[in-house]
Amino acid sequence: MDIREFLSLPHRFGWGGEGKPHPRDPNGYIYNDCTTFCASWVEVLTGIDPAADLRGTYAFPKSAQAIVDAVGGHIAFMAGRLEPLGFVRVSEPQDGDIGCVRAPVGLEGDFKEVGAIRFGPNWVTLGRAGLVGKRLETIAVWRLAE
């Protein structure tokens, strides 16, 4: 599966998402949050789900943030999950790269660090409104080493 096919799947937002269609969902939506969305793409690339131990263990934003904070923040969290699988930090993002970006969240106009996948000139994030591709501030980028 390539990045275009992955992004065309029926993604829906759900904290601590299982990364697969929910059995009670007649539409077959694949539930993830912004971070497990990236983990699902990593699983496509490597065959290993770097969020397997976290899926289904939290259902609220505060719980998700506590997991990230416990390891020193979003960059440390992502590096700790991606680098053991062969991802390396790069400075120029390309299609399919995983990024930590600053994105608008909520109705208050707050910006937070979230996981995203690069596609064209945009970062694709998964939020309550579904997939959104935007030019966002790039904080860190990882690519699967060849």
Characterise this structure.
The chain has helices spanning 3-7, 34-46, 61-70, 74-82, and strands at 11-13, 30-32, 87-90, 98-105, 110-119, 122-127, 130-134, 137-144. The protein is α+β, with helices and mostly antiparallel strands and 146 residues long. The protein is globular, with a radius of gyration of 14 Å.
Give the helix level as a range of percent. 25-40%
Gyration radius, in Å: 14 Å
Please indicate the percent range of residues in DSSP E strands (runs of 2 or more).
25-35%
List low-confidence stretches. none
What's the number of helices?
4
Following the backbone from N to C, one meets helices and strands in this order, namely HEEHHHEEEEEE
Task: Give the helix/strand layout.
Elements: H1 3-7, E1 11-13, E2 30-32, H2 34-46, H3 61-70, H4 74-82, E3 87-90, E4 98-105, E5 110-119, E6 122-127, E7 130-134, E8 137-144
Parallel strand pairs: 1-2
Antiparallel strand pairs: 3-8, 4-5, 4-8, 5-6, 6-7
